């Protein structure tokens, strides 16, 4: 049980979803997907077709990837939580983002540009104290006579979206765009109350758990328990109509771009919306002060000899967890972009981008500066510097390869994680293919 929880704790970040701030895409106006950062950013091509594209980002605060996993003498990959725990701060964060855009389309009719896209997006946040992985990995015995703060904020969800966009060009220098996105929630695990603490009495080792905690879950999967993992992930149990008929939501994007001589600036506000979760909903609620006569809660609840269901059943009994099935609603992380692109000459462009997201009453921001060089009519590449998270300084880049009507591109906000992944605590990349017909100009 303990190894399973530690593995889930590590694997959590790979699910994602918007984690690292992406400050390059809205500076690459020749890439059709830049429209996802500003609905007024549309190419001059008569017709743009986006083939599958993929985006992923991961971020750990404190510990690096190499602190969490190691290769032993036998060549096997092993989890090393104690090593990672030593690198953690009192308060920590794991975030992730994953996006698969299946197809997109955009075309001009006069001075109006129409667009549509479909994508599957996953996002994840976990804010947690150092004491939480310490309890799972080391038990509570090192904290005898002390109170462990286990309060944490977990937000993990995935949804599909169908977006319909419209951009107009009332004058040559100005473009205004908007987009409506129809959402269908795939799965959600989120906390709305997150207060947990554990005190181990010094003399008799009595455990006292103080809680004011609620977790909501929803999924189109049906399962009988945590041990029934094969049933959870079985493709045979998926009704693909569920992607369209349940957990519905709606979101809006707005954007504007203004061109003056050699400079273009833009503003956008994205993902203003929410999802209502009503499929296989469970609400878990506990509030009170509970006592448990035991020595080591980690030994009792996270021991490998116990199944997940046995551990959960014991924990539910102690904490008096009440389960209901009330539908609930979650807001999307609202994003804001501002950019300025300035053409220094026919080949070189200098750009800067500011990104900010508001979610769970927290504001997260990033700033990026980029130099883009057009080597030939079929190859462009750029160097990018951005500031966000810890460490704060990141050096990345991009390439755009145009082979006739076919375009291949790749973007990363950091080269260092690619060169030395074991020492990195963040990772970010995007790749994709597009097809574009000649310009309308």
What features would you describe in this structure?
The protein is mostly beta strands and 441 residues long. The protein has one domain (2-436): Porin, CATH 2.40.160. The chain is built from 9 helices and 21 strands. It has helices at residues 2-15, 65-68, 81-87, 131-138, 229-233, 242-245, 297-301, 308-319, 416-419, and strands at residues 47-60, 69-71, 77-79, 91-109, 112-129, 147-149, 153-171, 174-200, 206-219, 248-260, 263-277, 282-293, 322-324, 328-331, 334-343, 348-359, 362-374, 379-387, 393-403, 406-412, 426-436. Strands 1-4-5-7-8-10-11-15-16-17-18-19-20-21 form a 14-stranded antiparallel barrel. Strand 15 and strand 16 form a beta hairpin. The longest helix has 14 residues, at 2-15. The termini are far apart. The relative contact order is 0.18.
Could you name the key traits of this structure?
21 strands, two-stranded antiparallel sheet, Porin, 441 residues, 14-stranded antiparallel β-barrel, mainly beta
**Topology order in helix (H) and strand (E) letters:** HEHEEHEEHEEEEHHEEEHHEEEEEEEEHE
How are the strands of the largest sheet arranged?
1-4-5-7-8-10-11-15-16-17-18-19-20-21
CATH topology: Porin
Mean pLDDT: 82
Biggest β-sheet description? 14 strands, antiparallel, barrel
Tell me the span between the first and last alpha carbons. Answer: 63 Å
Beta-strand content:
over 45%
**Total strand count, please?**
21
Poorly predicted spans: 1-20, 223-235
Apparent shape: globular
Domain module tally = 1
Query: For this structure, what is the CATH class?
Result: Mainly Beta
